[in-house]
TrEMBL record:
PANTHER family: EXSB FAMILY PROTEIN, NAD_GMP SYNTHASE DOMAIN-CONTAINING PROTEIN. Keywords: Transferase. GO terms for molecular function: sulfurtransferase activity. InterPro entries: LarE, Ni-pincer_cofactor_biosynth, Rossmann-like_a/b/a_fold. The keyword Transferase applies. The lineage of its organism: Bacteria, Deltaproteobacteria, Candidatus Acidulodesulfobacterales, Candidatus Acididesulfobacter. The active site is at 178 (nucleophile and sulfur donor). It comes from Candidatus Acididesulfobacter diazotrophicus. CDD domains: LarE-like (cd01990). It comes from the Bacteria. This is ATP-dependent sacrificial sulfur transferase LarE.
Amino acid sequence: MDKDLSQKIEKIESILGNEKKIAVAYSGGVDSTFLLFIAEKTLGAENVMAITGNSFTIPGREIEFCKKKTAEFGIKHIIVKTKEYLDESYLKNDYLRCYFCKIALFKTIRPYISDGYKLSVGTNAEDEANFKDRPGMKAEKEFNVLSPLKEAGFFKNDIRNASKFFGLDTWDKPQMACLASRIPFGNIVTEEKIKMVERAEDLLKQNGFGEVRVRHYGKLAKIEVPAEQINNLMQYKSLSDIILKIKEIGFKTVAVDIEGMNHSGLNL
């Protein structure tokens, strides 16, 4: 481990140590898994709890992953059903959708946080550098949520490198944005649309494409994989079968984005 990363780890351990007890909003991603690990390492499992918001926009496989990891860490894990879908401001799916989603999440999980525990999230320094006015971060500030990774100066590669150093199997886990990000801005988010996307993505993952997104454009499904995987997808022997099965889900047309995946998480 290089000196810069070592110093960042020392800093986050100091930040967490000052809080004594931490409740992590846990999604199962690279960032929140590393935060959960380093919190347990610093404070002990008895002083850490994980809370996962279970929404229809979160794939079922990710909820199961959260259960598995918290069990491995020996950390108390609470799963709560979120109801952002009851908020019309969320459903209309504009630029502020993530803000209303985070507000709903924090309101829902707050009653489940044990006394003395500080709610924290896996937002990192790169999130702020790339998108300073990210709506979800606005909600974090309003609820006075701690962002230890961001405060300690961790960028995405730092988190992956540190995760690899400590032997976490999430170090190379593909980046995951909630499934609502597959619905273009201005199109209402519905559970039916989300389930169509989830089924299509699961199908591609089962065929070896670990990092994939399927955008929902009404009757059109647009498949995105990393640029370096496009040729593999186009030449995949079972691609025609995959397209047929995606159409059976309810899409009329299936397209592949030949420019590669958009990693911003924004709805395009």
